[in-house]
Amino acid sequence: MSRIARLALVLLVACGGDDDPDLLPELEALGEHPVGFTQMSVTYDRPDGRGDRSLELLVWYPSEPAEDLERPRYPYRTAVARLDAPPAAGVFPVVAFSHGHQGAPDVSTFFCEHLASHGYVVFAPTHTGNTTARMVRTA
């Protein structure tokens, strides 16, 4: 069964009522992959032609075991991921995670790590000029 089909099945089961109340621990469990984390900056030409723009990305990915590497420091919880761990071999689907208006991508680290542990690469961009930290600094 493909990953997308499995994800759809999990979502359908999770939203399907209380037929199996013991399913929650299985859905909460981390997947089989260790998780790596890195941050990067991507610069591209603005579509309006007014120069370039840099976008900061937080990235979680399936990794090789790397217990000797440091964990990232998140503001709200202890990390499962390891900083700059070597990526796991293979091809993995990609998820773009948007933190929403005036949010921050590191608020949902639990979700991004969970997806990476189940074999997804998660890219979480900071929304240029529209994050909680940016709004606090400019208010």
Topology pattern, helix = H, strand = E: HHEEEEHEH
Structural class: alpha/beta
Strand order of the largest sheet: 3-1-2-5-4
Shape: globular
Strand content: 15-25%
Low-confidence stretches: 134-139
Described by strand count, sense and barrel closure, the largest sheet is: 5 strands, mixed
Distance between the termini: 50 Å
What is the percent of helical residues?
Answer: 10-25%
The number of distinct β-strands equals 5
- Domain count: the total is 2
- Mean pLDDT across the residues is 82
What value does the Rg take, in angstroms? Answer: 17 Å
The number of helical elements comes to 4
Question: What features would you describe in this structure?
Answer:
This protein is α/β, with parallel strands linked by helices. It folds into 2 domains: 1-30, no CATH class; 31-138, no CATH class. It has helices at residues 3-14, 23-28, 109-117, 132-138, and strands at residues 35-45, 52-62, 82-83, 94-96, 121-125. The relative contact order is 0.20.
Name its key features:
139 residues, 5-stranded mixed β-sheet, 5 strands, 23% strand, globular, disordered C terminus
